[in-house]
Amino acid sequence: MTEEAKNITAQPSSLPEVSQNVEKIPEIDHSPAVAKGTMAQPLPAAKSAAGKALLVGISLGLFLALLTLWFAPVWREWLFAILPESKFALQLRTTDIKQLRKEAQRLEKRVASLQKKYAAITPRLPYLIVNTSENRIQIMKGWEQLHEGVCSTGSYVLLRSAAQQRQWMFVTPRGMFQIRGKRVNPVWAKPDWAFIEEGLPVPPLGSPERFEAGVLGEYALELGDGYLIHGTLYKRMLGMPVTHGCVRLGDEDLRLVYKNLQIGSKVFIY
Amino acid sequence: MTRQNFGVALLSGLLKPLRFLRQNRQAQIIFFLALIIFPLFIFIVTVVLPVARNPFEASAESAALENSEALPDSTPAEIVTGRRELAQKMAALEIDQAFLQTRLELSKQDSICLIVDLLDSTANLEVKGVPMRRGKILRYRSSGLARRLRRQGRLHQWLATPFVLQEQLATLPKATIRLKEAPKDTIEAAESKGEDLPIEQRDAQFTLQFDRNLTLSVEQAQPPSFSGRLRELWYDLRRNFNEAGDAVAALMHLQLPQHRMWIEIELSREDAKAIYRALPTQAGLALRL
Lengths: 270, 289
Description:
The complex is a heterodimer. Chain A is α+β, with helices and mostly antiparallel strands. Chain A contains 7 helices and 13 strands. Chain A folds into 2 domains: 80 residues, no CATH class; 143 residues, L,D-transpeptidase catalytic domain-like, CATH 2.40.440.10. Chain A is 37% helix and 22% strand. In chain A, a hairpin with a 2-residue loop joins β10 and β11. In chain A, 26% of the residues are buried. Chain B has a domain of 187 residues: L,D-transpeptidase catalytic domain-like (Beta Barrel), CATH 2.40.440. Chain B has 9 helices and 10 strands. About 4% of the residues of chain B have low confidence. Classes of the chains: A alpha+beta, B alpha+beta.
């Protein structure tokens, strides 16, 4: 007999005590269920236990399913580790050992030729590498480093002018560039943002106010789209991301870059 | 309270809500079935079947190759060893060939790409075939599946073309953009000039998901700061959540979730940061392992 059934049979003996105080409650007769002595018709308590079991089981099962899903990659790795490997671990195209040796030699030659081809890609002329993450430069020739120095690159400032409804992002572009021009004692042709940033009215194009000498250092090397490699008056800022997109160098580094890089030389910025 | 007693008390406390199952066989069966059915289903569709049907495992062609390698039992031991050594050498050469071909293919592109050479312990940023930054891999771990395929000499087929970046998740932003409102006049401009530049000391940890089921995780060698640890925790949660989400999405489309071949590498913080920030969306990857 289940515990619920025991409880039910125990109830009539306790009922009189309760009914003394609560007279209006009709007496419940449980005798038929007990008298028959069978479980052919499930008792309400048993039914509710089954329902509860289903509900709790499903809830816990869903939780376990979520855990299984969460750790599925780990399980899969574990399965890959314990599953037996193929009997023939390495597969060959032929069983003929002479043929295999020939094939290996052919592969060796092919790899050597690819390596040669790959090595030939490196520029022969000196080239410049600019690291915008740490604001450093390297002058390279082939695989050899000729010089290493500091620079300043784009500040990632987004300048917004509400009055003019315009905005500029000061970023040094990444990728491969070429030196398109070299200038000595360059004059800076100030773009609109240079005035807006200073809180000044923007003069018309070609206005003498737009041209400023001496601020770009001794040399400037053009990368295209208005981006330059040039000197700076603010040497204490070197090594920090403070520019409007150009690459600023100290005097000595600029001299070396100017000397080593020719028009057409490559500049790699990352 | 001893540790054992505490354990017993905890267990009985946890099992308390299940007391209604006592001496009720029918409820016990229902409970057990309800408990097991969902985890079992999930285990089969997200673990067993993806392992059994993973796309990297033997194809019809390789099965034929397996048969072709069978040698009679009477074959001398030297020949068997010689063949095995030759096979290993060829497998390594095929990987080298695939790696170089991939790099050459990537060198034709204009964008920055990543070259990861686990045999050489390097992670380089390259553009047009020129290495711009050479990062030293301090430690790495890879999927058991990758090691398995390597032993089977099947890896080169998978490495033969560049991988393309599809998704990225990181503890640091791609760029720390600062918004600056244009000053109204020269006085305001002079005031804003004195503002100090914030020094960025973010920890670097990121995951790159490539096509052909490859996941590359990069961790910094330096221990993270307290805020870095919190970010790392959040990042790990998001990563696992994304993976579980992908599995659910696959199941919703009546497909089996695929096991991703993963590689975890450890770099210095500077290398990790530089690599993450330099990589464009859809960056290419050449891999040697």
